[in-house]
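Slack export, channel: ligand-projects

TW: morning all. Re-posting the request from yesterday since it got buried. We need the structure predicted with the small molecule present, not the apo form. The ligand is zinc ion; the SMILES is in the block with the sequence. No rush, but it would help planning for next week.
GE: picking it up
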Amino acid sequence: MLPADSDLVPALLRGEEAAFASILDAWSGGLQRVARSYVRTNEIADEVVQDTWRAVIAGLPRFEGRSSLKTWIFTIAANRARTRAKREARAVPMSAVGGGGPDGGLDPDRLRGGGGWLVTDAPEGIDSPEAETIAWEASGVVEEALAAVPERQRTVLLLRDVEGLSSEDVCNLLEISHSNQRVLLHRGRAKLRSALATTCRRCRTRRSSHEPHQPADAVVRGGGRAIVGLARR
Amino acid sequence: MLSCEEVGERSSAWLDDELGWWEGRLVNFHIKRCAMCRSVYEQYRSMKQSLAELGEGGGAALDPEVRSGLMAEFRGSVDRDG
Ligand SMILES: [Zn+2]
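GE: finished. pasting the full token output, ligand included:
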């Protein structure tokens, strides 16, 4: 847990390295995810993150605290990523982009194809309302499914549900209205849910073929991180 | 009673506890009686939870070289300003 802004900001302004290290470690991953929702490759997203931190270092003395520190930093990243994405789009002919949907999102099929999931379809009936528990491993699967969510919806989803920013902050950050933000969040969640349902059917299939003794409704094994079960009761 | 579709439209606000008292009652009433909406809501809830866990996990760590470069820049900026 990071200290509150009221402690953090003065510490940063005093030049305390531990304070800077703590936000560097706490937020770089989230900044990378948000940047990645705009730009095409992880490498470009990494550059955006790096540029963002440089801008933060340079701009800290002028930080006025009108928003939280986190929102301020994520706003810098989002603006930079947006600018960068526009530049890339001009530089690269559309045919070379490959896999980008009309909304600029990644093609989920392309990701799934190489993602190690068994491509066999699950038997019919698994998706019925009273079907047993379906589950996904939190590591990887959710992130993979996020790629199926269109860009603007995904950005809102990342900022609200992953980074935990308030709707107020997200509206200011993306310069969108409250109702627009609500619609994007709602659609993004709906899209992610259906993407997860598809992915899950595949991981169930994979599991049952590798682990024949596993009970059908088991919420399966921890690969280090928590397993999230979609209990359908 | 709200229809399943109307409940679906309110699922996001319900999830964030943003529905008014009366609308919250209506959704609650429906969800208690409708297995399908209940299971959809459960999925949304665990999805939101795993997204939050994704955020708590931090994500990809900064490349060590980049990290130490940024730390040096931070030190440098303090020396300059202070
Ligand atoms: Zn219903």
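GE: first-pass observations. Residues B 4, 7, 30, 34, 36-37 surround zinc ion (CB under 6 Å). The two ends of chain B are 65 Å apart (CA to CA).
TW: perfect, thank you
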